[in-house]
Design a protein that fits this description.
mainly alpha, disordered N terminus, 11 helices, 2 domains
Length: 183
């Protein structure tokens, strides 16, 4: 267990490459023992508390799913927020999807906008959807067109479909405004 802890800590502190691509509990082989997950969670905790955004994201997921310790939604939210505060795009996307109540959609909009501005096609699609349907923001077909277009340029199939559907309904003046914003 000590070797796992030391190895894990080295990986997390060396740039966090393992933290972002760490397997989900369902992806782990059957021979992984609970104490291995506990060591991973402890390692993630150390690196997260040192400010590593990737480790914060990994720890948040482990707390959210109850991997290596008890399920702790409050801690998960705290660590997702810490990672998002460092513009960690996967954390921004998790927080952006975490709002399912229509009154809270403004919070989702903020996180999705930050992810979209960082270049995430998922964030860009969500921005298009928010502007198209007025979720967290006043509906604006031109802005919806812009964000769907940006995501579609990255081969996002949902955005491509959203853009095609919008093209059939958008007013000519709104489409011209959108095309101008895309220049």
């Amino acid at each position: 267990m000590r070797l796992i802890l030391v190895t894990g800590l080295c990986l997390f502190m060396s740039g966090g490459a393992m933290a972002q691509s760490a397997p989900l509990m369902d992806d782990l082989p059957a021979e992984v023992r609970p104490e291995d997950l506990q060591a991973t969670r402890l390692t993630a905790q150390i690196a997260a508390d040192a400010g590593d955004a990737a480790a914060q994201f990994r720890l948040a997921g482990m707390c959210d799913r109850g991997e290596g310790g008890p399920r702790d939604p409050a801690a998960a939210y705290l660590y997702y927020r810490k990672a998002a505060d460092q513009n960690h795009v996967p954390a921004l996307l998790v927080l952006g999807e975490g709002y399912d109540d229509d009154n809270a959609s403004k919070g989702a909009f903020v996180y999705n906008r930050r992810a979209a501005e960082a270049g995430s096609s998922i964030g860009q699609f969500r921005m298009g959807y928010a502007y198209e349907h007025g979720m967290g923001v006043k509906a604006d077909p031109a802005q919806a067109y812009v964000w769907y277009s940006r995501a579609a340029r990255q081969q996002d199939s949902a955005a491509t479909l959203g853009l095609e559907n919008l093209k059939g309904r958008i007013a000519a003046k709104d489409r011209a405004r959108a095309e101008g914003m895309l220049q």
